[in-house]
Structures are given as C-alpha cells and as structure tokens.
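Example record

One chain of 184 residues, shown exactly as stored in the release files.
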Amino acid sequence: MTRIYIILHINNKTNLKYIIMKTNSILTLISLLIFLTSITAFAQKTDFSGEWKINKEKSLLGESQLFLSRIKMQLKADSLLTTRVYENVNGEEYPFDENLSLNGKEGNIVIFEMPRKSTATRSDNYATILINSTTTFNGNNGQEDMIAKESWKVQGEGQILALEFSNKMSGNETKGTYFYDKVK
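Predicted structure tokens for this chain:
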C-alpha cells in the first residue's frame, strides 16, 4: 500500500509540473499575441481619404460667411490632394484643388485670383493633419491676408471628420469646429 501511495504521489507531482508548465506556456503565448496585436493597432495610420460632406446639424455655421461644405481627400504617404468646395448662404459653390506635401514644405496656388500659401504636416501618431495657410486678397482697405489654421481628425470609426479651425483677418478671429460625414 505504501508503494502505491509513493507511485501515485510521484505521478501527481509529475502531472502537476506538466500542468504548471503548460499553463505558463499558454499564458506567455496569449500575452505575446495581445502585445503584437496592440503594436499593429497603434502603428496603423488614420485614413483621411474619401469624400466628406458637412453635417450642418453638428456644425455651427456663420450667418454670412463662406463655409467648407464638401471635401474630397486623397492621402498618400508623402502628400495630400484635396478638392475643397466652399459654399455661401445662397448656395453658390466655389471649388478648388490643392496638392500639399506632408513634410511642411510650402505649397502655392491661386484661388479665384487670390494667392494662397499653405503647409501641411501630420502629427507624430498620424492621427491629425495640420494645415496652415495664408490667402491674400484685395479688401475694402487694399491688400489683406486671411491666416487660417486647421486641424483635421477622423472620429467615429472612420466615418466622421472633425475640422477645427482658426481664421484671422482684419484684426478679427473666427474659431470653430465643423463636422463632416463620410460619403464615400
């Protein structure tokens, strides 16, 4: 009887070691999978590409100012191509195309006889695009500049674009956030 107890005791110790080793291996494997999945998720770049249309219910629009009603974006590794459509309160549209490098290099275009200088960069985590621009036009008192700062972020599982802006012109500043729904 003592022999049977000793043999069972030795087998139980062996089985226990096997079970502990197996459990540790499984836990290590699960931890490794979670770690690799999180690295992949954080390394992904936000996709801004697509067609976006303003959500007027979520966006506070000025009474008599132009607003960006639609935007089409093609985001590549090193550049951003946009087709912007501005609209006034009468529904008249003013579209223009802009192709910017994402390394902060200045881009120059002319929009309806108004020169525009712009720079674009991405945040370190690729979640935000920052655009700074100066558009020069002839106002009531001669030549004036509109200085715009924009911060674009994709939200809501990639279906909402938030455009936070600050526009300075003639000593006045307008700030706000427009929200766009992804159309395509």
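Notes: The first helix runs from residue 2 to 43.
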